[in-house]
Amino acid sequence: MDGLQEIYKRLKRLMYFILAAFVLGWGVTPYPEVFAGLIVGSLFGIYNMWILVRRMEKFDRAVTEGSKVRSLGTALRFASGVAVVAIAILFAEHIHLVSAVIGLMIPYGLLLVERIVYHMKHH
């Protein structure tokens, strides 16, 4: 099975392509608010994945060493979600709220799809 860092690198690379498509959509389509929301949400989603990978590695080390782990960064990731909503509300004329929340979940959806494809190929 792939390590967390390899999975994260693959997802991050894929997210850069998706973000590039969102930027094109923001600049070319008549829906810049929707694409701005997807961009903001996706950036925070990548940040959340980074937090999760970092905390999972810390958790793995702690289990190996036999020590305790405080948390997996749930509070930080929740605060990041709140920040996305706050930014979308604050700049409501430029950022669509629902698309920002959808953008926040895109990396998790990609992770799910990537793992399903991986297991279908290797089993």
TrEMBL record:
Keywords: Cell membrane, Membrane, Transmembrane, Transmembrane helix
Membrane topology field: Multi-pass membrane protein
Transmembrane segments: 12-28, 34-53, 74-92, 98-118
Keyword Ribonucleoprotein carried by entry: no
Major localisation: membrane
Stretches of the chain forming a coiled coil according to its record: none
Compartments where found: Cell membrane
GO cellular component: plasma membrane
Superkingdom assignment: Bacteria
Pfam families assigned to the protein according to its UniProt record, in alphabetical order: ATP-synt_I
PANTHER family named in the record: ATP SYNTHASE PROTEIN I
This protein's name: ATP synthase subunit
